[in-house]
Design goal:
The complex is a heterodimer of chains A (86) and B (135).
Chain A (H helix, E strand, L loop, with lengths): L1 H6 L18 H24 L15 H17 L5
Chain B lengths: L1 H39 L3 E3 L5 E3 L5 H24 L6 H14 L6 E3 L5 E3 L15
Antiparallel strand pairs in B: 1-2, 3-4
Helix pairs in contact in B: 1-2, 2-3
The chains are: A mainly alpha (86), B mainly alpha (135).
Amino acid sequence: MKRHKLTCAEAGATVPAMENVRIFGSRTGRQIGLIGLGSLALSGCITVNAPSEPIVIELNINITQEVVYRLAKDVTDTIEENPGIF
Amino acid sequence: MARIFGLKTAISFAVGVAAVAGLSGIVTAQGANDLDQARAAGLVGETPSGYVAAVGNETPAIASLVRSINMQRKEIYAVKAPAATPAVTIDQFAKATACQLIAKTKPGQKYQTVDGSWQTRNDGPAILPSYCPPA
């Protein structure tokens, strides 16, 4: 308790209510407190960050200029080889 | 007996294929003239998809020409797309072809923009889809 008073080194990592629980010893109490905090934080993250709508990946643009550049030679050849339909 | 029957079937199948191949050759030759004429007349235009489409009201003859040309194009795309390095989808190869086909339309010819509207090519550059490199 002296250390706690002097430095408050571990105060942030414990739930104040947990400090009064001495049945399992202070360390266990703090561990339970940490787990409690962790799951609180975790569930908080999921609840807050869960998207309200499904994630939509843009599939309309399925071709890029890079692909067109790369295919340029093949395309030119294709058009030249088939003058009847291009 | 089974062998003879199999051989006969194989021969008749081969003859059938040859006949179809000959027919498609004729269709291709006719299609060339018809496509050029239809494009010059503004009845058929290039689309951003890599296929042609009728501009405005289509006659049965134009509809049939468009179907024939597009079917043959798709067959070629289907061969070329997987052969590219690295391979692309038929759709990607078709769209890449559309870039060049629209870019090389001649003044007076029709082409379609991505919003579906038909444009008449003028002396300036064609309006290309965003995935096409600037001409």
